[in-house]
From TrEMBL:
This is 7-carboxy-7-deazaguanine synthase. It comes from Thauera phenylacetica B4P. Homodimer. Transmembrane segments: none annotated. The keyword Magnesium applies. It comes from the Bacteria. The gene is queE.
Length: 223
């Protein structure tokens, strides 16, 4: 057991950009009322990132304080997101504490950092960065072997070249046999109907998704 996991809750501090209740906009949990805990900071710079406001700033909070605010929203589902949540060492303790408090917890992570230490009760929604993101070299491929049926693997695709790359990865690593695979278009870059057509044409064993929160509110922040 790591020092992070054994540290008392009062000793764990995290940098937080925002906490809010909304509908889950992505993954197989789409549409579920959810509390979002957005951690500050990310070591990546994806070309199409829509949460750059979480790169810096935020407020330092204790774990106890965070848990109390999450509990106050009165929702079972909690999504820990960013930025890149795993860039903060206190994230593992936060995830475990949310599970201990009885929440159904998901983690949105870039795929660039080690996911091995994440509490097994958490559903890991992990990106595999396509070439169009500009962060292809950051993919930590060792993570793929750690995914299981509880987890989901997400590709965000900017163009036909990204789609061809994703299709190759899905076949090479037999990804659809490990977990749900999600494909979504970069908003404003790839026509969603075109991507949907490619998936059907190629009979890909994946789930197409659009970002519900953008359809509803055209905004990634504070919804
Ligand atoms: S990993 Fe996520 S938060 Fe970080 S730059 Fe990429 S899209 Fe933005």
């Amino acid at each position: 057991m790591s020092a992070v996991e054994t540290a008392p809750a009062t000793a764990v501090r995290l940098r937080i950009t925002e906490i809010f209740a909304s509908l889950q906009g992505e993954s197989t949990r789409v549409g579920l009322p959810t509390v979002f805990v957005r951690l500050t900071g990310c070591p990546l710079r994806c070309s199409w990132c829509d949460t750059a406001y979480a790169f810096s700033g935020g407020e330092t909070r204790t774990l106890d304080n965070l848990l109390a605010e999450v509990a106050g929203h009165g929702l079972r589902h909690v999504c820990v997101t960013g930025g890149e949540p795993l860039a903060q060492k206190g994230c593992l303790a936060l995830l475990a504490a949310l599970c201990d408090a009885g929440h159904d917890v998901s983690l949105e992570t870039s795929g660039a950092l080690d996911i091995a230490g994440v509490d097994p009760r958490v559903s890991r929604i992990m990106d595999l960065k396509a070439p169009g993101s500009g962060e292809l070299a950051r993919n930590r491929l060792e993570n793929l072997a750690l995914l299981n049926a509880r987890d989901e693997l997400k590709f965000v695709l900017a163009d036909a070249a990204d789609y061809a790359w994703a299709k190759q990865q899905i076949a090479e690593y037999r990804l659809a046999e490990c977990c749900t695979v999600l494909l979504s278009p970069v908003a404003g870059a790839l026509d969603p109907a075109e991507l949907a057509g490619w998936i059907v044409r190629d009979r890909l064993p994946v789930r197409f998704q659009l970002q519900l929160h953008k359809i509803l509110w055209n905004d990634a922040r504070g919804r």
